[in-house]
Amino acid sequence: MLKRLHHAAIICSDYALSKHFYVDLLGLQVIAENYRDARLSYKLDPALPDGGQIELFSFPDAPVRPSYPEARGLRHLAFAVDDVARARQVLEAKGIVMEEIRVDEYTQRRFVFFADPDGLPLELYEA
User: Which residue of 53, 75, 81, 88 shows the fewest CB atoms closer than 10 Å?
Assistant: First the structure.
């Protein structure tokens, strides 16, 4: 019945900074960008290469979501890459702070964590 993940929705604190991060630094292509006057909010739809997408929202005065210690709810977003070490180098060269590469104890695949401008945990997973 379920085919794939269609999108993940993210609420950011600084629209311009987050747009730069997801589009310019991570290289996602913009499908649509709209300003919604009634909500004083932007909605950006960057596409993932597999057909999925992210919905990036800006809302005035959105509350901060606790991350550490980890709270219930979505833990992180993981993006598949062919080579974690190479992808890590590319993002570090763009100024993104990356954690050390780890190996999944069950699959033996490499992965690495980093964060978006609001501290949302993101992962690169070698697929």
Answer: 75
